[in-house]
Design a protein that fits this description.
Elements: H1 3-13, E1 24-26, E2 44-51, H2 54-57, E3 69-75, E4 90-98, E5 101-107, E6 113-114, H3 118-130, E7 137-140, E8 143-150, E9 153-159, E10 163-166, E11 182-186, E12 192-196, E13 220-226, E14 234-239, H4 252-264, E15 270-275, E16 281-288, E17 291-306
Parallel strand pairs: 3-4, 5-7, 12-13, 14-15
Antiparallel strand pairs: 1-17, 2-3, 2-17, 4-5, 5-6, 7-8, 8-9, 9-17, 10-11, 11-12, 13-14, 15-16, 16-17
GO molecular function: isomerase activity
Pfam family, one: PhzC-PhzF
Protein name: Putative epimerase, PhzC/PhzF-like protein
Length: about 300
Amino acid sequence: MSCSASKKLLEFSNGSSQLLCTTVRQLDVAPKKEKALIDPQTPSLVLYAFAGGDEVRGRGLREGGARGNPCQLSLLTAAPTEAPIPDCDTRCLSWRLDDDVCALRCWSPADREIQLCGHGMLCSGAAWLREGQTLSQLEMNGLRTAFHADEDKYWIGLPSISCAACRVPHWIGEFFSVPPWRAAEAGDDDGYLILEWPEGFDLRSLSVPRYALHRRTRRALIVTARVSDPHFDIQLRYFAPQHGVPEDTATGSAMRVLATYWRNRDLSDQLRAQQCSHYGGELHSRIRGDLTWVGGRVTEHAGESRSGQ
């Protein structure tokens, strides 16, 4: 599907989600016996990370089911020498470094290289296992992470990140009509600003911040709240218009941050999160030692593949 065709699909889908009700099958966690490398000239895979489970997906897209975050992925026989052609989805290139280690690079739809792409890492690891390759680590921009699969989920182990409580910035009212009641920061000046609303607050009611956000902060905004739901502990949304991402669908790096944030707020070391974007995501986290494991399901929409670079 061409980039222009994808845009038309997304625009039309905002008014009718039926176009996205394609056949979905979950990628097998158990690898195939045969081994195969995908040549970069073959069609790339279109995978969806952090897709909802059967018990959630059955509610439908609008009622809480999660399509997950799309990733157009090519498995290469060597490191790429140039960036891929921009696309309407995240584009990732992955290749092997060692028997159990694979590397990847990812680009946003705005053609900006992503420093840490959780859903790209999850999709890359799942795809290599599906091709019969062994894999225990993934490397992206010098950061090497642990990787494993269990039951129906894939997991990446990232160094835990610290969060420090801060005052709710005075300018928040310029972007959200209902102010949050708590705030925290993670990372450096272009890291994350976490904003918490009271339990039960409908995060979907928040408007996507305008590009003018860049005049106030370089931090991506993670908005979150506790929920009373049998399937989830928290909800979240992720906004970074100043970095070319008005709103992300399902954000593994944000889940890593929230794992620490909510542990500091006396929630469990294991969390189940619903990302309340238009198409939605279902993310899981667990803190073990110095690592925060972020996990979820990876699915493939039948019939979706695209030409290579």
